Amino acid sequence: MLAAIGASESVGIGATDPTRDAWPQVFFNTAMPESTVFYNFGIPGATVEEALSNELPEALSVRPTLVVVWLNVNDIIAGVSAPRYESELDQLVHQMRRGAAARVLLANTPSLDRLPAYLGCRAGNPPAGIECPPSLATTSPSDLIAIVDAYNESISRVARREGAVLVDIHGQGEVADAHPDWISPDGFHPSTKGYAAIAALFASSLNQAS
């Protein structure tokens, strides 16, 4: 039993076919045995606090044996402090682990300071369809890098404390520069190719931890 907890990325926003191309769906299709049952509880725009209220109860009800979690960027946009984020993420992962009854794959935060949406918001010229959150439009690149680093330190600590497998998306570097085709036209969400790369990274992390 596989369950996904996340936000817009988990439901494939930015992909050519979100239902088919969302990274949890690709992960399920390519990395899981045919007998696996999959539930996607992702909600666009969700923070960890919102996932605790709106995704966790449903996820617990199906008693998954494997849980994939990617939740961080919306918390950054909302201005959630790293300590508060860590506390809420720890609650989420701890409950999903259910006393080690489930394995959890926990993704960290990608680099954000080169994303076209962020750069456009800073310049006052965001991509079409993107609303610029004040918290990002007024945040300098160096400050955004520091925020992402603080979040990723929190995620690493949660993974260690709760026995989760860390999926190092941040370790892919400045994806917007190295793989611009992994970014959707909105300049923020992954593209279909980006989601495929993320699903492959989750699969690789699972295999290495097995």
Describe the model:
By secondary structure, this protein is of the alpha/beta class. The longest helix is centred in the last third of the chain and has 22 residues, at 141-162. It has a 5-stranded parallel beta sheet, with helices on both faces. The chain starts with a strand and ends with a helix. 49% of the residues lie in helices and 10% in strands. The mean pLDDT is 94. The chain is built from 11 helices and 5 strands. The radius of gyration is 16 Å and the shape is globular. The protein has helices at 18-21, 23-31, 48-54, 56-61, 73-77, 82-97, 116-123, 134-137, 141-162, 175-178, 192-209; strands at residues 2-6, 38-40, 66-70, 103-107, 165-167. It has a single domain, classed as SGNH hydrolase (Rossmann fold, 3-Layer(aba) Sandwich).
Total beta strand runs: 5
Strand portion: 5-15%
Strand order of the largest sheet: 2-1-3-4-5
User: If you consult CATH, what is the topology?
Assistant: Rossmann fold
CATH level-1 class: Alpha Beta
SSE layout:
Elements: E1 2-6, H1 18-21, H2 23-31, E2 38-40, H3 48-54, H4 56-61, E3 66-70, H5 73-77, H6 82-97, E4 103-107, H7 116-123, H8 134-137, H9 141-162, E5 165-167, H10 175-178, H11 192-209
Parallel strand pairs: 1-2, 1-3, 3-4, 4-5
Name its key features:
210 residues, Rossmann fold, 11 helices, 49% helix
Short description:
This protein is of the alpha/beta class and 210 residues long.
